[in-house]
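Bumping with the actual sequence this time:
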Amino acid sequence: MAKRERAVRRITAKQKERLNRLAEVLSEFLPLTSNSPRAVTFTTIFKESAISHYLNTRKPKKQALEEGLEKLYRYRKNLPKKIIRKIIPAAISYRKYIRKPLTRKELDNLSACLLELGIDMKEEIESDVVHESIQRITVLPEQLKERLRQHDLDPAISSDPLQLFEDGHFTEAVRKCAERFEDRVSDLSRIEATGRDLVSKAFKEATFIDISQIEPENQSSFVDGYRFLAMGMMAAIRNIFSHGDEERRPPEECFEMILFLNWMFGYLKSD
């Protein structure tokens, strides 16, 4: 039987309201969870302090944070500061990645919320350096998401992969697309192989490639080219991204890879 924790703070209705406001502010800082083992999330940060059980990841993000922060505040006297110290640099990095830099105003709001709860980190938070401008933005993520929503995507991409991209998990979206492509080829060909070996064998001939729109004199070259593209995709995208230790790629690059995979899907024959 687990030892019951002893409360170090009393949660009044006013404190509960303030904790909920803190959860609302922090909810924009980081994802709750991620499929990538290298991603820093609220769950990984709580896990480092052996309190991952405070977060119920089956619940919506804001609700999970409200409950988790209440337990953190109720049962751990000094840990809230330690957790915040981990959240801020991770959030600066993550928000830069999704092209939505963390702002000084957001940090000031965080500082104010903490002070209302009797946690004074004002000077410490003021010393955190944030860069609110982004260099070399070709297309903002929201525009990329809208473009994908409006694009004629294969059903294998317009389901889970598109949702991952919508949620800001850009690299994960590409990984899922590549795995779905491999699954489709495996189902079509019934070949006992995976990855590069699978597509190399499956696309030696046009058996599983729809070349009906290709001029007859170009069909042989198209099949060769498609086969080599599929083999390269397996080596350069599917294999690397599925290892889980690949660095997060910029959203623009992930968008381009998804559209390339969508093009590849377009020439696969139906089951």
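The tokens above came from a reply further down the thread. The chain has a mean pLDDT of 90.
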